[in-house]
Amino acid sequence: MRRPLLPAVALAWLALGSGPARAAEPPPLTVFAAADLVFAFKEIVPRFEKALGVRVTLVLGSTGQLAQQIEHGGPADVFFAADQAFVDRLVAERVLLGETRALYAQGRIVLATARAIGWKLTELRDLTGPNVRHVAIANPAHAPYGKAAEEALRKAGVWDAVRPKLVYGENIRHTLQFLQTGAAEAGMVALSVANVPEIDWVPIDPRLHAPLNQATAVVRRSPRPELGLAFIQFVNGPEGRPIMKRYGFLLPGEF
Amino acid sequence: MDWFPVWLSLRVALTATALTLLAGVPTALLLARKRFPGRNVLEAMVVLPLVLPPTVLGYYLLVVIGSRGPVGRALAAVGVEFAFTWGAAVLAACVGSIALVIKSAQAGFETVDRQLEQAARTLGRSEWSVFWSVTLPLAWRSVLAGAVLAFCRALGEFGITLMVAGNIPGRTQTLPLAIYDRVQAAQMGEANALALIAVAVVVVLLFGLSRLARLRY
User: Fold this and answer.
1) B8 touches chain A (CB under 8 A)
2) Could you tell me the fold of the domain covering A28-106+213-246?
3) pTM higher than the cut 0.90
4) Segments of chain A with pLDDT less than 50
5) pLDDT tens digit string along B136-146?
6) Which residue of A13, A30, A71 is in closest CB contact with B11?
């Protein structure tokens, strides 16, 4: 019974070889970006691709997770962090090119309510109410928006009351998904991802948390640092800025 | 819809299954047949990947094979990038699934009647020949069952892959990672379609295999 099996498996393996092998094309520019950029970059990336005639692979994740991958040789050409501290650390470790470091935005957090539940929270204190059973925030240990959410809850004096209700998303996109599915009634997400049909939101006073200054830099191992730098300049340039602004980011020079 | 994750996962799982059989069957035979110092340690090490959380395992692997790790640096010296490639996804799948091959094959080898092997030896067969003509044919079902389990585990491998291969669309984004990505992006339609494909692939493969080998669980 081994006879028909082995050749069949070998054949299948060879046939599959044609799938993943895309070696003929030039490798795309790989952008590791914090998850709060998901919507803005989905608009910016195609424009950049068109303008420069290159392909871009966008990898979204939590800033901490992406930073850790880049540290261990993750194939990023350029890194957009949701917190400049991560970029500065990697610059100090000579993983990122310090001369390419640039601020690109300041983020905002909002108090979000899942629309499915039929009412809307207006202030952080509302999170302590009995009708809110789950509060979604990004994991404060490695996601900058989660850290800001924790700071705001502490500053507002509701941390201890809200803490048992917290559910942690891996990153801000995951946190948003808790709200979109109604799994959590309320939560705190980035303004840049808050305009989705499933949720309502109100801004959170930015004085309640350390500013979410966001920085980017080109990765030292990148074989094409000039292309990564071009992408940074595109985001910070006349094409990128209006899009970033539309998604609620404050832009360099505004903060 | 993007079919790349499906092809990549099938290729990764097939490669990993072949490699785990290559490494796992001799290990299983060793554990089933020989008494040697450190045997209990080896037996414990074999199941360790099933005990440790995959992401933890993945992190340790990354520390070793990443650009700063000893293996990663040695490979880089000869111009090979291993972390964050599809090869790293194969390694992840192997680590996650090899215990299933070893334990299943070991159980199979332990039930083989040693007297039959002895009889073959008295007839002048070499150890190599005894294995291929007596031991393996008698334990074949267990080995195949282990391989099938390993293939399924490899196809569904998530945590280790995420850490050592990244989640790079078009390069290392396997089927489970693609589903995870779609769910996070609240693209439930695509997530459901991919999950359905994963289930269909496994059902078709298992059905075909059981017909081919009259395998019973």
Assistant:
1) yes
2) D-Maltodextrin-Binding Protein; domain 2 (3.40.190)
3) no
4) 1-2, 20
5) 999 998 999 99
6) A13
- C-alpha count within 13 angstroms, C-beta hemisphere, residue B46: 24
CATH of A109-203, one of 3.20.20.210, 3.40.190.10, 3.40.50.2000, 3.90.950.20: 3.40.190.10
CB pairs under 8 A between A and B: 92
Does the distance separating the beta carbons of A72 and B67 come in below 8 Å?
A: yes
Q: What is the pLDDT of residue A4?
A: 61
Chain B partners within 8 Å of A59 (Cβ): 166-169
* Residue-level pLDDT at B217: 45
Closest residue in chain B to residue A175, using alpha carbons only: B184
**Interchain pair A4, B168: CB under 8 A:** no
Distance between CA atoms of A77 and A90, rounded to whole angstroms? Answer: 14
What are the φ and ψ backbone dihedral angles of B198, each rounded to 5 degrees?
Answer: -60, -45
> The domain B4-213 belongs to what CATH superfamily?
MetI-like (1.10.3720.10)
pLDDT digits (tens, 9 = 90+) for B66-91: 988 999 999 989 988 899 999 999 99
